[in-house]
Amino acid sequence: MITIFGIPGPLLFGQLLLGLINGAFYAMLSLGLAVIFGMLNIINFAHGALFMMGAFASWMLLNYVGIGYFPALILAPLLVGIFGIILEKTIISRLYKLDHLYGLLLTFGLALVIEGLFRNAYGSSGMPYRIPNILQGATNLGFMYMPNYRGWVVVAALVVCLATWAIIEKTSLGATLRAATENAPLVQAFGVDVPRLITLTYGGGVALAAFAGVLAAPIYSVNPNMGTNFINTVFAVVVIGGMGSIMGSIITGFGLGVVEGLTKVFYPQASATVVFVVMVIVLLVRPRGLFGKAA
């Protein structure tokens, strides 16, 4: 059996894979947070609850309507994104000119309400979501067996993250979005409907969280608390990467997932806190985050 630093190879590579999977969810969730904060200046603490709603939406589509996994990857983010647009139009849009603290408190309250409603309707115990047949089984990589679904999660998350970055950083739509956050009246003077653009941006950030929820449904049990289990770590990822930094969220999310996985191998007692230790160190050395821009 192959050993690396005295650790059996299958154990090490297995934890690396788990770290990549967690990192994929950290990256997608922190990306949605970065998009919303970078474009709208709102700290969206309801992001974990919207991630949970994506998982529940896919579960409901399967059990109530008979719609399977792959259509749910499109429909569930669309439905939750529409819900996010309604939230933005009715509640969140009132906070844009106020201090960040008001947005944080409001979205924290929204998260509690959403999770409470689902808890009352479905209880706290998890409900299974079956892996689609085409993604069941495992592939022999020579040094380990990789579950096909987990490999799919990493690839799908990476593709969605890079596509989002490309849209925001490399297209005219992304340039318009960035300009609207810097000088909304000027952009509106050129005929751009800035309020609608902001609403769609919030809906897109929410849809990213819901997409991550659909990917997470077959791995974690679908339950009202699943977003709470991620959101604290995800906020740490956003702070480390730099608030509002798109690429920073992607790199930091995957990177910290791997760090967390390796910590579980070499020093398991620290695996629950290593991300927050890294956050403290980064804030001491570089308060704006690894990829954040100076104010």
Question: How would you explain this protein's 3D organization?
Answer:
There is one protein chain. Strand 1 and strand 2 (7-8) form a beta hairpin. With 295 residues, the chain is mainly alpha-helical. It has eleven helices and four strands; from the N terminus they run E-E-H-H-H-H-E-E-H-H-H-H-H-H-H. The model has no long low-confidence stretch (mean pLDDT 85). Strands 1-2 form a two-stranded antiparallel ribbon. Strands 3-4 form a two-stranded antiparallel sheet. It has one domain.
How far apart the termini lie comes to 52 Å
Query: How many H/I helices?
Result: 11
**N-to-C series of helices and strands:** EEHHHHEEHHHHHHH
Average predicted confidence as pLDDT: 85
In helices, the fraction of residues equals 55-70%
Task: Give the neighbour order of strands across the main sheet.
Answer: 1-2
| General form | globular
**Rg for CA atoms:** 19 Å
Number of domain modules: 1
What composes the largest sheet? Answer: 2 strands, antiparallel
* Assembly level: single chain
SS elements, strand count: 4
| Unreliably modeled segments | none
Strand content: under 5%
Helix/strand structural class: mainly alpha
Features of this protein?
295 residues; 11 helices; mainly alpha; 3% strand; single chain; 4 strands; globular; two-stranded antiparallel sheet; two-stranded antiparallel ribbon
